Predict the 3D structure of the following.
Amino acid sequence: MPAYPGREPEPRVLIVDDEPDVVELLVDVLAGDPRGFKIETAMDGYEALIKVGAFKPSVLILDIVMPRLDGVEVCRRLKAGPDTRGIRILGITGYPDTIPRLLQAGADACLTKPLDVQELRRQVDRFLARP
């Protein structure tokens, strides 16, 4: 099984958001990418942590405000773990005032909702282009 970060032939992206419409939009945007992303989804932070272990994503698109376990805590836990700290995390939120907390927890970048699809693609490209 490949390590979390890296340039595997089919980059793995885990999308985590409690809004089904947002999840569907993100899946649609990424499913059309010529790199053939492997995509998995989770509806809350608790489910995300479980799926990270089995799916081993290189990129995590993470909503900040969610039930059960919010994106800030998910980010903090992943960045603290030696096996998961290399996952690139793109925070997404409809609450811009929460962005500093997520960045402080270790997120690599954040976008606000409604999402700019082109900026989302640029961020994912940037994450996957790193050495």
